[in-house]
Amino acid sequence: MAIETGFDIPAIEISTFELTLVGDSPLIVHAWSEKAKKEILDKQMKVAKTKVRSIRNPAADFIDSLYWLTKKPAEPTMEAFYQAVAEGAEFGFPSVAFKAAAVSAGFRTGVTKNKTIPNSAFHINGDMVRIYGTPEIREDMVRVGMGAADLRYRGEFKEWSVILPIRFNTAVFTHEQIINLFNLGGFACGIGEWRPERGGSFGMYHVV
Asked: Is 126 left (phi over 0), alpha (psi -120 to 50) or beta?
């Protein structure tokens, strides 16, 4: 039975294409490790902290910072990491970060009036997209808590690219507008740690 609305609702027209992005600056990744997740859960469950600090393992921190699409090495060592890479290890990044960069950049620069319309007008298929490139371990000095110094070991892709499977509503955006929006996102916002949106210059990219 048809519903009488008093106005026409045009059929939605969805178009798909693949968008290739190439990094303009190194990408720093920092996935949530199982240890970090456990610490958050313990805090929420009021679990008492132990005063014994675990021994720092830079290789383990680096390996845990990566988004593994293939199996993560069982041993948290650099030797195990290099072996995994030699065997064809693949790494990814949350696809939502690329969409967020495009939507945020459009709104910040006045290209779009709000974030609601672009958020519902296009999507990236899948939770993760593959990062084409080989990560290296990166050491940074950071300030935590009350200004205390600490070291962070994370993965860095000096050269990288991704292929995004895009679906979009042609009644809202054209193919060219989607490309322009992602170019804007790569320049104005970026992805990952220390990206332009957070005052840095890492994680920038452009469409090819």
From this structure: left
Q: What is the DSSP string of 148-193?
A: EEEEEEEEEESS-EEEEEEEEETTT--HHHHHHHHHHHHHHT-SST
What residues contact residue 133 under an 8 Å CB cut-off, 6+ apart? 23, 27, 91, 157, 158, 159, 160, 161
Q: Is 123 exposed, middle or buried (0-12, 13-18, 19+ CB in 10 A)?
A: middle
Closest CA to 191 of 157, 166, 165, 140: 157
Question: What Rg value do the Cα atoms of the chain yield, rounded?
Answer: 21
Position 144 scores a pLDDT of 77
Q: How many residues does the chain have?
A: 208
If one compares 158 and 145, the residue with the highest pLDDT of the two is 158
pLDDT of residue 5 exceeding 80, the answer is no
Q: Per the structure block, which two tokens stand in for 60?
A: 């383990």
Main-chain dihedrals φ then ψ at residue 55, nearest 5 degrees? -70, 135
For the segment 51-69, what is each residue's pLDDT rounded down to a tens digit? 656 678 999 999 999 999 9
Pairing of strands 14-23, 161-169: antiparallel
The structure tokens 């679990």 sit at 47
Q: Residue-wise over 27-45: b if at least 16 C-beta within 10 A, else e?
A: bbbbbeeeeeeeeeeeeee
